[in-house]
Automatic annotation (TrEMBL):
It comes from [Ruminococcus] torques ATCC 27756. This is Riboflavin transporter. One of its GO terms (cellular component) is membrane. InterPro entries: ECF_substrate-spec-like. The chain crosses the membrane at residues 12-34, 46-67, 87-105, 117-142, 162-183. Keywords: Membrane, Transmembrane, Transmembrane helix. Pfam families: ECF-ribofla_trS (PF07155). PANTHER family: UPF0397 PROTEIN BC_2624-RELATED (PTHR37815), UPF0397 PROTEIN SPR0429 (PTHR37815:SF3).
Length: 206
């Protein structure tokens, strides 16, 4: 596959994962309406953001989560003002997951199922652990200084956000880890995930 064709395929895969992120957040969420017309929710959208980064790598996976969930925010009158924050945080989740899984652990160069499972879970925890800390903090400053909400209200929203983000993270780590490791054999057979070590050996033998 040429470099150009590979890029086109990656973009198509990113669009597909973005659609999954959008659907999972838009339709598989339990919204909690808060005072002041704001809201927080329990959802599994982050699981698909992490899954995208495990499959496609940090940049493409992060963009899938950022575009999919950012677009979901734009279409929701309650969440629309938080769309820029969502875009940045989901991109960061993908970048962190990709860094740990592909740059540090190099899971696409291994055939050890236990190693891949362990590091896919570690990468998921790293990305969503970042989100548990960053989401309420960024949300607090975003609501207070950009949206102009009173400090007390911003604090209440941050506390609710911290609670729901933690629950979402636990569920998403488990879901993303299970889905990735269950789908990995199929993704390898279809060529969506490519074993880099095998590619190197093949190229050398040729």
């Amino acid at each position: 596959m040429t470099k150009k064709n590979e890029t086109v395929v990656k973009i198509a895969q990113t669009a597909l994962m973005a659609a999954l992120c959008f659907v999972s957040f838009q339709f598989l969420q339990f919204k909690i309406v808060l005072p002041g017309g704001d809201a927080t929710s329990f959802h599994v959208g982050n699981a698909f953001c992490v899954l995208a980064a495990l499959i496609l790598g940090g940049w493409y996976g992060g963009l899938a989560g950022a575009i999919g969930m950012g677009f979901a925010d734009i279409l929701d009158p309650v969440y629309i003002t938080g769309a820029p924050k969502t875009f940045v945080l989901k991109l960061c989740i993908g970048l962190i997951v990709g860094l740990v899984a592909h740059r540090i652990a190099k899971i696409n160069e291994s055939t050890d199922k236990k190693y891949i499972f362990r590091w896919s879970m570690i990468a998921s925890v790293a990305g969503l652990g970042f989100n548990v800390i960053a989401d309420p903090i960024v949300g607090y400053f975003y609501k207070q200084y950009i949206m102009g909400q009173p400090q007390q209200m911003a604090e209440v929203l941050a506390k609710w956000s911290a609670a729901t983000t933690f629950v979402n993270a636990v569920i998403s780590v488990i879901l993303a880890g299970v889905l990735y490791n269950a789908l990995r054999p199929v993704l390898l057979k279809t060529g969506i995930i490519r074993q880099k070590r095998e590619e190197a050996v093949t190229a050398k033998s040729i």
